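Reading a protein record of the kind used here takes only a little practice. To see the layout at work, look at the sequence and C-alpha cells printed below.
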Amino acid sequence: MLANAESHAMRNAEVIRQWTVLREIEAARGAGATIDGLAALVNVSTRTIRRDLQALEEAGFPLFDERSADDGTTRWRIDRQIFKDLSVGLTLSELCALYFSRALLTTLTGAPFRGDLERAFDKLTSALTPHMRRFLDQLPDVIATKAGPGGAASESPLSEQIVARLLDARLHRRQTMLVYHSRSSDRTKDYLVHPYRLAYAQGGMYLLAYVPEYQEVRTFAVERVRSVSLLDERFVPIEELPAQAFPHSLGVHSGPPERIELEFHSSVADYLRAREWHPSQAISEGRDGGILLKLDVCRDRSLTSWILSFGPLVHVVSPEPLARAIAAELERASAAYANPAGGRPDQAPA
C-alpha cells in the first residue's frame, strides 16, 4: 500500500513538472528554451528534462529542437502551425488549461448552463490530439475540486425551462408573472416582476427582479419558482444593479451593509489572515495573538452561520443586536444538547 502511494505521488510530481516544462517552452516563444534552463527552472537534472521532452513528444505535443546559428545552443520550441485552424487565437497552454478546467465544472452541479459549457469545451478541445488529451487527463488527479455544500441535487427539465424563460424576459425587458413559493412564509404567491439579472451563487440560481408592488429589487431562488409567464408589456429598469451579485453579503442577500467587528482567538488567526472573506475586510492585531476583523456587510443568515461556525473562538464586538442574536442561537444550541431526549431545539432561529 505504501509503495503504491509513493509511486502515485512520484507520478503526480512528474506530471506537474512536465506541464511546467511545456508552459515554459511556449512562454519563450521564438527565443526557445534550453535544456539547461529548463533543468534549473524545475530543479532536476538535464537527463530528467530530456526524458520529460521525450514524454511530451510521445503525448503528441508539437515540440521541436533547433540549433542556434549564433552560439550553437540547442533550443526547444512549439510548432504553432498545428493550431492554425483554431480561429480564437488561443495559445497551447491556454487551450490545455481550458481542457483541464472541465474538471472544475463539477463545482457547478445543477447550473443550467453546464450542457452549453460542455459543448463549447468539446469544440475547443477538438484541436487537441487524443494523445494530448490523455496526458492532460492526468492533471485532475493532481488538482481536485469539491462542490460547496447546499448545491442543487440535480438539474431538471423544468428548471432549464424556467431559466430559459427568465433569460428571455431579461434580454427583451418583458414584464413577468412568477408563481413563487416563499420559504419564509411557507406559501405560494403570484408576483409581477421586472427581471433584472440572473445570478449563480452558492450552488443555486437566483433572479434579481424589481417588484412594483414593493417598489424594490428582491431576490428569488429559481428552484422555488413554480411557473413563469412573460407578458407583452415591457419595462424600463429604474435601478442599476452593482456589477457583482450580492456584493454586500457573505452569501445570497441584497440588504444594506453595516460595520461588523469581530474578535477571533489566536488559534484561528493565521487561517483568517490567509483568506479574503469579503473585499471590505480590515484585519488588525487583537489581544493575546488574536485578531480583530472588520467587515462592511449586511446582517443576514449567511453572516450569522459563518460566525457560529467558529463556536467559542469568536466574539462579536459590534453591533450589539448581532452579538445578542449570536448569543441567543448559542443558548438554543446548548439547550438542545442538554436535553438529548427532546432530540431537537425548542424553536427555530428567527
Summary: The two ends are 51 Å apart (CA to CA). Residues 3 and 96 are 31 Å apart (CA to CA). The chain has three domains: 1-147, 157-234, 258-338.
